[in-house]
């Protein structure tokens, strides 16, 4: 069984390492030659356990036939990846923040079995080959299109104590649950440059987070009370973590704002919403930082 992990960011490095440690051979496809050479020379180092995984790295431009692809690139890099994968037969798991990729996948014409995933692991990339596993979690997995039997096959094949997988019946419910977390946590922590936990300890950020949860839950047809309880639990669990959007802004990288808040803005009155304010604020920070 050949598995291709696509994307050399924090989640790609972590999943490639976890797959190796659970006994699966995988290839990590990355964009830059420098990262490819560094991983091939020295392996992937996973902190805080200092576990080194010897995973083969190749360039994304050299994608080839695999039994399974796990796509961990950012939303804005998906178009070219989807076009490349359309030429292959393997099953594909897409693990992205937000829901902007749904329109792209709906427009893709291919016969592949497509699975959607959400990642509950916390991870922070330190350099080309090093990732810190900041919080242990699982991958939630649901069928988007194709053969239901393949969802069961990959769950049975990959699920382990090191690489836990949970199959979900409804991909939309699964993605909306993760989307609401991203909507509440990511932009506020990025704008105010705080760790996740300050959304609960700072009374003003707490109020803002709750109002954003209310607005987003209404736009997405969700129960505000249930979602807020769930989001608070997740913030408490990840209170010492930095959100991915905060990291992107800090490191002058493009964020996934379009796939997260942009998706919701299509469903609400943009002129008078907190979500619109957060969206414009992140776009302004992106422009300011170049």
Question: How would you sum up this structure, described in words?
Answer:
This protein is α/β, with parallel strands linked by helices. The chain has two domains: 3-169, NAD(P)-binding Rossmann-like Domain (Rossmann fold); 174-288, N-(1-d-carboxylethyl)-l-norvaline Dehydrogenase, domain 2 (Orthogonal Bundle), CATH 1.10.1040. The chain contains twelve helices and twelve strands. The protein has helices at 10-21, 33-42, 78-85, 101-107, 148-158, 171-192, 198-201, 203-219, 224-237, 244-250, 257-265, 274-288, and strands at 3-6, 26-30, 44-47, 51-53, 56-59, 68-71, 91-95, 114-119, 122-125, 130-135, 139-145, 165-167. The strands form two sheets. It has an eight-stranded mixed beta sheet with strand order 5-2-1-6-7-8-11-12. It has a four-stranded mixed beta sheet with strand order 4-3-10-9, with helices on one face. It is globular and about 50 Å long. The termini are far apart. The mean pLDDT is 94.
